[in-house]
């Protein structure tokens, strides 16, 4: 997964879907913007299903890379829509994957990365993410 995880952050256009439940998602957005990437954000916090669907339909798809960090609803519902529209590279934030997401990740027709925090790969320097990265590397989980 390491090679796929590192290559994931070499994209140009990102869509980040959040519900504000994962602070590292905000840091991910900031880091991508700092690197000059095009970043669209949909924050589904407080949205009902109709508003979420309208937000997704308003996008110009496909988008190179998708980052999903939501806990308020099943991520697979959003992922199914994005995959149908041609989005093939999806990162599901650590501890937000579900059984349905894990099943989808086993399909080799698209690249779904699960089980890792984006900041493990995006974070630089001395920070909580730098410590996390050091521990992950020493345990062979990077």
General description of the model:
The chain is α/β, with parallel strands linked by helices. Helix content is 42%, strand content 20%. The protein contains 7 helices and 5 strands. The chain has a 5-stranded parallel beta sheet, with helices on both faces.
Secondary-structure element sequence? HEHEHEHEHEHH
Strand count, sense and barrel status of the largest sheet are:
5 strands, parallel
Question: Helix tally?
Answer: 7
Percentage of residues in helical conformation? 40-55%
With strands numbered from the N-terminus, the spatial order across the biggest sheet is 2-1-3-4-5
Kindly report the average pLDDT value. Answer: 89
Keywords:
single chain, 142 residues, alpha/beta, 5-stranded parallel beta sheet, globular
Short description:
With 142 residues, this protein is α/β, with parallel strands linked by helices.
Please render the helix and strand layout as text.
Layout: H1 2-8, E1 13-18, H2 23-34, E2 38-43, H3 49-57, E3 65-69, H4 75-84, E4 89-93, H5 99-105, E5 111-116, H6 119-122, H7 128-138
């Amino acid at each position: 997964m390491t090679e796929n995880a590192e290559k994931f952050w070499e994209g140009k256009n990102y869509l980040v879907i959040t519900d504000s439940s994962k602070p590292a998602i905000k840091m991910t957005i900031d880091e991508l913007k700092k690197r000059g990437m095009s970043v669209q954000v949909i924050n589904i916090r407080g949205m009902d299903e109709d508003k979420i669907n309208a937000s997704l339909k308003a996008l110009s798809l496909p988008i190179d890379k998708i980052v999903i960090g939501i806990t308020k609803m099943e991520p697979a519902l959003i992922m199914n829509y994005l995959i149908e529209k041609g989005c093939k590279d999806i990162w599901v934030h650590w501890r937000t994957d579900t059984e349905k997401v894990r099943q989808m990740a086993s399909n080799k027709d698209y690249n779904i990365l699960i089980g890792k925090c984006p900041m493990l790969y995006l974070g630089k320097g001395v920070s909580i993410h730098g410590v996390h990265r050091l521990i992950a590397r020493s345990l062979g989980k990077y």
